[in-house]
Amino acid sequence: MKKIPAILISLFLIAGCASMAQERSLKNLPNNDFSVEIPKGWSKPKYTDKYLITKDGAFLQYVLIQQRPIDLPYSHTKKKLNKGMLPQEAADVIIDEIASDRRIYNFNVIENAPAIIDGHEGFKILFSYKDKKGSPFKTLYYGFISGDSFFNLRYNAAMRHYFEKDIADFERILSSFKVVKDKAALEIASER
Amino acid sequence: MKYFVLIIAVCCLVAGCAMSRPIPADQTLTAIEEEQTLWRRAQEEQDAINGSGVLYQDAEVENYLNQIAAKLQINSISPDISFQIKVIKDPNLNAFAFPNGVIYIHSGILARMDNEAQLAALLAHEMVHCTHRHSLRALRSVKDRRQVETATVRELAQLLGITGAMSSISSYTREFETEADRVGLDLAVKANYDPREVVKLFELLKQEIDSEKIEEPYFFGTHPNVRQRIENINNWLAEKYRGKTTGIKNTDEFQSRLSRLVLDNARLDLRQGRFFVAQRAVEKFLALKPDDARAYFLLGEIIRQRGRQDDAAAAIKYYEKSISLNPSFPEPHKAMGLIHYKDGEKRLAKKYFESCLLLSPDAADKAYIQGYLKLCVANGEG
Question: Is the Cβ pair B273, A99 closer than 8 Å?
Answer without folding.
Answer: no
